[in-house]
Amino acid sequence: MAKILKIYQQNPQENLIDEAVKVLQNGGVIIYPSDTIYTIGCDIYNYKAMERLAQIKGIKMDKQKFSIICNDLSHLSEFTKPIETSTFRFLKTHLPGAFTFILEANRNLPTAYKGHKTVGIRVPDHIVPQMIVEKLGHPIVSTSIHDDDEILEYSTDPELIAEKYDKLVDIVIDSGYGDNTASTIVDLTSGEPEVIRQGKGIL
């Protein structure tokens, strides 16, 4: 059964953040809030956890397109090819924020991303995932929680999310009601921003 941790933006308790980080370090899968929708993720360097995440999503590992969640732009050079100064300035202008930016990947991506030429980078404007990444010491991965409802694409109620994923994940972080609009996906691989999916973020 998934453990529910109530961690709110106004006063996030460090001991609860530490508990979530410990679960990630041990190969666990967690559901956590962001500045858009609730997402599900794990430690980017734990291959078995990534396999578990893919299984939950019902996809094969070589088909996964999990975004990388960072707490700032310092992790960019670890996973992406060198970017132009103008592109970096553009990123700084829009992050943290409700965007997923597609950039050219380098060869240092973890094993789970083998063969990927691009990678999606997120820096959510939400203290909880930022603190988790900071304490973990490296990024976590992110994939959306889709709802089975034909009208509601994303679940917003953490209690209902916890009920649905109770036997699939280790922790559900309840940070209050989430948004029902995902991030805006912007492709920067050509140097010019191209909106692939319009979401919450407005360029």
What report would you give on this structure?
The chain is of the alpha/beta class and 203 residues long. It has a single domain (3-197), classed as DHBP synthase (Alpha-Beta Complex). It contains 6 helices and 10 strands. A 10-stranded mixed β-sheet has the order 1-8-2-3-7-4-6-5-9-10, with helices on both faces. A hairpin with a 6-residue loop joins β9 and β10. α1 (14-25) crosses α5. The longest helix is centred in the N-terminal third of the chain and has 12 residues, at 14-25.
Element layout with pairings:
Layout: E1 3-6, H1 14-25, E2 30-32, E3 39-41, H2 47-57, E4 67-69, H3 76-79, H4 85-94, E5 99-104, E6 118-122, H5 127-136, E7 140-144, H6 158-164, E8 171-174, E9 184-187, E10 194-197
Parallel strand pairs: 1-8, 2-8, 4-6, 5-9
Antiparallel strand pairs: 2-3, 3-7, 4-7, 5-6, 9-10
Pfam families: Sua5_yciO_yrdC
Protein name: tRNA threonylcarbamoyl adenosine modification protein, Sua5/YciO/YrdC/YwlC family
GO molecular function, one term: double-stranded RNA binding
Defining key terms:
203 residues, alpha/beta, DHBP synthase, ten-stranded mixed sheet, 6 helices
CATH architecture call: Alpha-Beta Complex
Helix content: 25-40%
What's the order of the H and E elements? EHEEHEHHEEHEHEEE
- Classify the fold: give the CATH topology: DHBP synthase
With strands numbered from the N-terminus, the spatial order across the biggest sheet is 1-8-2-3-7-4-6-5-9-10
The residue ranges in which pLDDT falls below 50 over 5 or more consecutive positions are none
Q: Report on the biggest sheet.
A: 10 strands, mixed
Given helix and strand content, the structural type is alpha/beta
**Strand content range:** 15-25%
Instruction: Determine and state the CATH class.
Output: Alpha Beta
Strand tally is 10
N- to C-terminal distance? 40 Å
| Number of domains as seen in the coordinates | 1
Identify the overall geometry: globular
Enumerate how many helices there are, as a single number: 6
Which superfamily, in CATH terms, is the homologous superfamily?
DHBP synthase
* Overall average residue pLDDT: 91
Rg measurement, Å: 16 Å
Protein name: tRNA threonylcarbamoyl adenosine modification protein, Sua5/YciO/YrdC/YwlC family
Pfam family, one: Sua5_yciO_yrdC
Domain YrdC-like: 14-201
GO molecular function: double-stranded RNA binding
